[in-house]
Design goal:
- The structure holds 2 protein chains of 2 kinds.
- Chain A is α+β, with helices and mostly antiparallel strands.
- Chain A is elongated, with a radius of gyration of 38 Å.
- Chain B starts with a strand and ends in a 10-residue tail after the last strand.
- By secondary structure, chain B is mainly beta.
- Chain B has a single domain (1-24, 48-92), classed as Folate-binding superfamily (Folate-binding fold, 2-Layer Sandwich).
- The chains are: A alpha+beta, B mainly beta.
- The interface between A and B is medium-sized, with 22 and 29 residues.
């Protein structure tokens, strides 16, 4: 198959190897070294996509990531939307099609791997063009740790697409030489296909490396497809070059209208002649070498329309010698064609609208409106810009000290300037870092070019009537000059407002080329100074990054750490249904075959109330408090008195914030004179340790206390139910388990099943209960022994669901479920746990604030649905009347916990209700989707109010 | 993400640290002696200047020690760090 636009020689492609691909269902071939864009151009494909709003045909505009048109969807080997044809390296089997500005995400999970690495270096050089290479070489010779990254598959930057020569040889030979030297430095690393997309504080840069994307289906499965590099550099040299910008004129979006530098790139990189009959339209010198190179390659260059009255004499002379006609002071005012450009309308720039232009037939119209330094990363890092009238673009103003622009990004668009600029930036950086600066580089001489002449500023070109409506500023958003004018007529004056009004710069390329055009047009329309209007904000990412890459390995099972208790495998083997509590997996219940979760929970509840149950409570937060001032600290942290606890005793305690609101509760056991062990809610363990540490370190550093999390050290097994004493007696025969010797809220050291541990008489169910604590190493053995000892009594493992029901029957609140951070201990009916003896503790002063004394505070109460089978959804609102009035409906509160109770033989709920304790006995209402449920307010304790079951 | 110099560990990633609000606002010596308004001010009101502000930070994912930092609230730059009890650095 012949590729009509491919030249017989030239380009950095491997002509020996043919790569087959399809585009819009048609089969083509290309070569290694091609991008999808270059291969399409080689095959004469002009229209690549259609525009999003107007459906206009669109072709390839650029040769890099700035392209504003060529959006494609890749289908094979894996669907990926919204990729740029200019950024896709060609591979065998690539199947893609053009997009109308929107793509389609894959319907199945991406099977590829993505990962991330951290890297540290002295000097990060972004961009491996002449400036970046020069900087990297300088730093590597100094022995610095250097990382050089570039988004292209090959190093060299602009040198690969320009035909530039250094020291009389192709500049790419110089590139190869330097890269060879860099490879010899152990601390210099070069990453190609790597886009630095985010630049943050203190030399922190994120980059994405496309490791196997270019291999298509042949990509090895064991390698990550893309990799995020999290780079912390002591100094960053920005050598990101400059982007050529277009000009807005009527019908400037037809396929075949391209940036001049892009056509030159396709020629030198890929051996592709983007057109045969070429017209160039420029505001600056840079289009001239493109004109000459294309003419050398066999194109017929019909004219160079230079908007300046004085074209550069040196370049003009070269054109004359080649028979290229330079039209001074002329502009392109419009184009002809439908799905491809067929002609360019040329007219004098200052001719006014009455002058009819002359149409030159052409199949390629090249445009150069000047160059914008690629300052994106600099601005992301907080660097400032200034407007440089020499190039009519924003260039870096003084940047953060750790960031140095070098080469074209600094506004110097020349090759010698890039070489010396890169070296100078590196030398400055080395000096700043205290690294010995090496001898100056001997830069190879660039070929003599005509002196650079002043460019002209040209953002839009008036043309025939209505030209504004087809003069596109942002191709991706189909926004025209007319839309910008509409924004100013609507009174908008700031660039940021116009951006949002018109959507310019909000698409795939984030305004890489359209931003400055919009700004220029806005400035002209308003008669304002472009320099003062300033560009809109640059935000990461520089170019789109796949979420899969950002997610890396942090997805699926690896999304978040999973914590299992020491006996997690036992739970899994015994049919536990797990629930997530923070990062913990906790058994929710153990359904037997054929049993629903509800039935299992009811059975487990009955076992605890009627016999004995065993649960894995190891996830309880546990903090070991040691030191002579431990009691003092706990007295300040808890609302109740802890220092009076006797060794061997335990106490329930409540913690409040300084605002007097409950933040946690748990038990405190005094293990020794200077040692306590306290428990926290499972989900609050880390927070409470932090809370106590904060007070200890910042307010009371004089207290001699140390805090250690021992949550995972101790496995904790609540053994609950009237037969729990029998089970414990069997499992710990040397322990005196009588009520007199081992009373409620005490703890004892014991050998349990031959393992040393300790047992506390603590109950979260109201039943006679023990908490058996052994080190996690022995957890499984002790668990097994307890089950064995309990077999005689029908011991039943129970999960968190049963635990919740049992505790709720007793009115024990769960902090975080029955509270939301606005409840005092008094609101929860826990006044008994608030010391009146202590002069102060955290939260105490707040209790006497007027707001905390109000009679209409929400109290924790019980709710019994009048229909004993009706289960209130948790979160339901509670109101006063069965008839719901027009909104706003006064709310009394909400349901916090709601269960079916085996012990009560009915459903019940806990709720926070305004003045709840004063409403006991009243009927309130819970409106649901299609009904209003009457409920009776009760005390929060619904089962064994007298506490008769506590001692067995 | 800036580097913050932990006074004990040296420069570390910002993500290792936890912000703890205004520094030098000690817990009142005798809360009971304060009026509701004074106490409410302590509990609920923090100065929020645009510019340097002394703050408490914790090297939460490191040594877990608390320290003080002078942070510019307008730029989020941490200008200086100092140990608890140390003198407040001059603002630049």
């Amino acid at each position: 198959m012949s590729a009509p636009q491919r030249l017989p020689a030239g380009g950095r492609i491997d002509r020996e190897v043919m790569l087959g691909f399809t585009f819009d269902g048609i089969a083509y071939t290309g070569h290694p070294g091609d991008t999808l864009a270059s291969a399409l151009l080689a095959n004469g494909v002009r229209q690549v996509a259609t525009s999003i709003r107007l459906g206009r045909p669109r072709g390839i505009v650029a040769a890099d990531v700035t392209d504003s048109n060529a959006l494609v969807q890749v289908e094979e080997p894996f669907p990926e939307p919204m990729l740029l044809a200019t950024s896709i390296e060609l591979y065998q089997g690539l199947a893609a099609h053009g997009l109308p500005g929107q793509g389609r995400l894959a319907g199945q999970p991406d099977p590829a791997r993505y990962d991330a690495v951290h890297a540290h270096c002295d000097l990060l050089v972004i961009g491996a063009g002449p400036a970046g290479i020069s900087a990297a070489l300088t730093a590597a010779r100094a022995g610095a740790r250097v990382l050089l990254v570039d988004e292209q598959p090959a190093t060299g930057g602009s040198l690969t697409g320009s035909g530039d020569r250094l020291a009389g040889r192709p500049a790419t030979e110089w590139v190869s030489g330097v890269l060879g030297e860099l490879a010899g430095y152990p601390d210099a690393r070069v990453l190609t296909r790597t886009t630095a997309f985010g630049c943050y504080d203190d030399g922190y840069v994120l980059a994405v490396q496309r490791r196997t994307v270019h291999l298509g289906a042949a990509a090895p499965r064991h390698l990550s497809r893309q990799r995020i590099w999290r780079i912390r550099a002591r100094h960053v040299i920005l050598a990101t070059g400059a982007h050529e910008r277009p000009v807005a004129f009527a019908d400037n979006d037809r396929p075949g209208i391209m940036l001049a530098g892009a056509a030159r790139s396709y020629l030198h990189r890929h051996g592709v002649l983007a057109g045969r009959e070429v017209v160039l339209f420029t505001t600056n010198d840079s289009a001239y070498p493109a004109a000459l190179d294309l003419a050398d390659a066999g194109a017929q260059v019909l004219a160079v329309a230079d908007a300046r009255q004085q074209p550069p004499p040196g370049w003009a002379a070269r054109c004359r010698r080649r028979g290229i006609y330079v039209r001074a002071g002329q502009v392109v005012t419009g184009t002809t064609g439908t799905d491809r450009v067929t002609g360019a309308v040329l007219a004098p720039r200052d001719g006014g609208p009455s002058v009819a232009g002359q149409t030159l037939p052409c199949d390629l119209l090249l445009v150069s409106g000047g160059w914008n330094p690629a300052v994106h990363l600099l601005c992301q890092a907080g660097g400032k810009l200034r407007f440089d009238p020499a190039i009519h673009a924003f260039v870096p103003a003084p940047s953060p000290g750790w960031l140095s622009p070098a080469g074209a990004v600094s506004g110097d668009l020349t090759l010698p300037g890039a070489l010396t600029g890169g070296e100078a930036a590196a030398r400055g950086a080395l000096g700043r870092l205290g690294i010995k600066v090496p001898a100056p580089l001997a830069h190879p001489a660039a070929d003599t070019e005509p002196a650079v002449t002043q460019s002209t500023a040209l953002w839009s070109v008036p043309g025939a009537d209505g030209w504004q409506q087809s003069a596109f500023v942002d191709h991706q958003r189909d926004v025209t000059v007319s839309d910008v004018l509409r924004a100013t007529r609507a009174g908008l004056r700031s660039a940021e407002h116009v951006k949002r009004y018109t959507t310019i710069g909000t698409a795939h390329d984030q305004g890489k080329t359209s931003g400055i055009l919009a700004l220029g047009i806005l400035a002209e329309t308003l008669g304002a100074d472009l320099a003062e209007l300033g560009p809109t904000s640059f935000r990461p990412p520089y170019s789109p990054v796949a979420f899969a890459a950002l997610a890396g390995r942090d997805r699926g099972e690896l999304f978040d750490p999973v914590r299992g208790t020491a006996i997690h495998p036992w739970h899994a083997a015994h049919g536990a249904v797990f629930e997530d509590v923070g990062q913990w997996k906790r058994p929710r219940c153990y359904p037997r075959p054929g049993e629903s979760m509800e039935q299992a929970t009811a059975r487990e509840c009955r076992a605890v109330r009627g016999g004995v149950g065993l649960m894995d409570g190891s996830t309880l937060g546990k903090i070991d408090v040691q030191g002579p001032d431990s009691g003092v600290l706990l007295d300040r942290i808890y609302t109740n008195l802890m220092s009076s606890l006797k060794v061997g005793s335990a106490r329930y305690g409540v913690m409040c914030g300084v605002d007097g609101m409950v933040i946690d509760d748990g038990t405190v056991a005094r293990l020794a004179e200077n040692r306590f062990l306290l428990t926290t809610t499972t989900g609050n363990a880390a927070r409470i340790l932090d809370w106590m540490e904060e007070w200890l370190q910042t307010e009371w550093p004089g207290l001699r206390v140390s805090l250690t999390s021992v949550t995972e050290h101790w496995a904790t097994f609540p053994l609950a139910g009237p037969r729990s004493r029998d089970v414990l007696r069997a499992a710990a025969p040397h322990l005196d388990v009588s009520n007199a010797a081992f009373p409620f809220m005490s703890w004892r050291n014991a050998m349990i099943a031959g393992v040393p541990g300790w047992v506390a008489r603590i109950s979260f169910s109201g039943e006679l209960a023990y908490e058996v604590n052994v080190t996690a190493w022995h957890a499984q053995a002790v668990w097994d022994s307890l089950l064995e000892a309990g077999q005689l009594f029908g011991i039943t493992p129970y999960g968190t669901e049963a635990m919740h029901v049992l505790r709720a029957e007793k009115g024990y609140p769960i902090i975080g479920q029955d509270t939301d951070g606005t409840q005092t201990p008094h609101d929860l009916g826990l006044s008994w746990a608030v010391s009146t003896k202590k002069s102060d503790f955290i939260g105490k002063r707040s209790f006497t604030r007027a707001a905390n004394q109000r009679a209409d505070r929400k109290h924790l109460v019980g709710l019994l649905p009048v229909d004993p089978a009706a289960l209130l959804p948790e979160g339901s609102h509670v109101v006063t009347a069965a008839e719901i009035p027009e909104p706003p409906v006064p709310m009394l509160g909400h349901v916090t916990s709601s269960y079916r109770s085996a012990a009560l033989g009915r459903t019940f709920a806990l709720a926070l209700v305004r003045s709840g304790r004063d409403r006991i006995g009243q009927t309130l209402y819970v409106p649901l989707a299609d009904t209003v449920m009457p409920v009776t307010v009760t005390d929060s304790v619904l089962y064994d109010k007298e506490g008769a079951r506590r001692d067995g | 993400m800036q580097l913050i110099s932990c006074p004990w560990c040296g420069p570390r990633e910002e993500s290792e640290f936890r912000h703890g609000g205004q520094a030098h606002r000690p817990y009142p010596a005798d809360p009971a002696a304060l009026s509701d308004e004074q106490w409410g001010h302590y509990v609920f009101v923090q100065p929020n200047p645009a510019g340097p502000r002394p703050e408490r930070w914790q090297h939460a994912a490191g040594c877990r020690r608390w320290f003080n930092a002078l942070r510019d609230t307008a730029t989020h730059r941490v200008l200086a760090v100092y140990r608890p009890g140390g003198p407040t650095p001059e603002t630049r």
